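Hi W., the magnesium ion complex you wanted:
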Amino acid sequence: MRRTLRLKSDEGGLAEAAAILSRGGLVAFPTETVYGLGADATNAEAVAGIYAAKERPSFNPLISHLDSLEAAQVQGLFDETARRLAEAFWPGPLTLVVPVAPTCTVSDLARAGLDSVGLRVPAHPLAHALLKATGRPVAAPSANRSGRVSPTDADHVLGDLDGRIDAVLDGGASDVGVESTIVACLGGSPRLLRPGGVPREAIEALIGQPLEGGHGGEENPLAPGMLASHYAPRAQVRLNATEIRPGEAALLFGTAPLRDEEQAKARLNLSENGDLQEAAAHLFSYLRRLDASGAETIAVAPVPEAGLGEAINDRLRRAAAQR
Ligand code: AMP
Ligand code: MG
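Structure:
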């Protein structure tokens, strides 16, 4: 348990909130949609803390919040349509999913390993001031425990997360109460990934064409291949390995050695100390590095199912089931 501070929405409170974020802590803050649970998006361990606090059983890509379109363009590549949408609806409840820019600093974990990044410039004055003071992208899903309703004031946040996060910036009630509209601009026609605060009609009027998708939502995603919603390694993934077979790469956890570990083509340890938050922070980047070793198969040591282990194992099982 840590003590959760309730910070006032004055200059001192904002400075404290920004300082906590900058050192890797978790701060809930108001946006015009719902209260978000923020962490420095460039710091994968801080992002892992979001999943731990929310007790989320799986990793999905998080939205990174910024204070300006200029800051967003450091993170993502905006085509003509994305730029026009951003200019028209930012700051506001619109999230754009765009390809990562070469200068992107948003961590692999915040992007769930994908080559795209979800970006938003919120309009709430406190959120804006906090992002400005923090000076880096802030990953923030809704500030509730997994499976509970999204919070629209600081008391809701504390009801769910008191003792699990460092602070909540109290800005009173948020006014939209619905989530951001999510539009993917990944080449080709823009697609509606989730309806939300900005109506579809307003977006279609601006771009002069109908948006694809949007009738399925997150539960019933677009046709396969239209948007890769999960990172998948090229190599096969073999779970709960107790030994390394010839030609395999090894993804280890903790200190217990695997048989014939030395013959691995490449070897990385998610966390030698057996720390699940550190393991979550390394998961996507290590999978990519082992994939790049050219091994046919990545053998993965057992990871305990407790806490963040559930989300880690969920992702590893999906990777293993890929083919
Ligand atoms: P939220 O729960 O409001 O933080 O929204 C998170 C949702 O944003 C995810 O479940 C995705 O649907 C979407 N999203 C964010 N980033 C990406 C991305 N890089 N690619 C695809 N979808 C994304
Ligand atoms: Mg939520």
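The domain at 236-320 is CATH 3.40.50.11030 (Rossmann fold).

W.
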